[in-house]
Amino acid sequence: MNRGGFSWKRLLGISAVKSRISRKIGIPLTRAGRQRKVGAAMGCCMLPFGLAAAAVIAFAMLILH
What we know:
By secondary structure, this protein is an all-alpha fold. The chain has 3 helices and no strands. It is rod-shaped.
């Protein structure tokens, strides 16, 4: 990977076009960006799903007991 310096993609505007597209569609075009987005979504959704699962289990225990 390039550590700064000259980049043909930046010169031709490919980097800017890709970033505009990814911002517009809301999905990162890089693999790392997609993984980061999925990880963030999983982090914020785990608490509600966990609480819902605990409530279902508690309700089932009350009914079966």
